[in-house]
């Protein structure tokens, strides 16, 4: 079952102009996307591999975060990803 969010119903009822409705919906989702990009970027920069974590899992998490950001047109350079991964590896001591 699909539901229409209350904010969209209010917008639709206020006007019959399809362009205005489209712009209002677009603005709502763009703000949400910006927040999501910020959150994913924060996760990427703050990820830390624990001594008990498998390297495969750690690398997979990093690649997944990058893929999600790229899907939202937020580029992450490969060099940046490598540097972030290497900086957060646990010490070998």
Characterize the structure shown:
70% of the residues lie in helices and 0% in strands. It has one domain (6-87). It is elongated, with a radius of gyration of 20 Å. With 93 residues, it is mainly alpha-helical.
Topology (elements, then pairings):
Elements: H1 6-14, H2 18-46, H3 55-71, H4 78-87
Key descriptive features of the protein:
4 helices; mainly alpha; 93 residues
Strand content: under 5%
Helical run tally? 4
Number of strands: 0
User: Which structural class do the helices and strands define?
Assistant: mainly alpha
The percent range for helix content is 55-70%
Describe, in short, the structure shown.
This protein is mostly helical. Helices cover 70% and strands 0% of the residues.
């Amino acid at each position: 079952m699909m539901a229409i969010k209350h904010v969209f119903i209010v917008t639709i009822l206020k006007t019959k102009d399809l362009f205005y409705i489209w712009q209002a919906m677009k603005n709502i989702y763009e703000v949400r996307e910006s927040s999501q990009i910020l959150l994913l970027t924060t996760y990427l920069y703050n990820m830390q591999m624990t001594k008990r974590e498998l390297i495969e899992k750690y690398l997979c998490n990093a690649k997944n975060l990058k893929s999600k950001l790229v899907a939202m047109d937020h580029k992450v350079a490969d060099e940046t990803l490598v540097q972030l991964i290497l900086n957060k590896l646990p010490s070998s001591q």
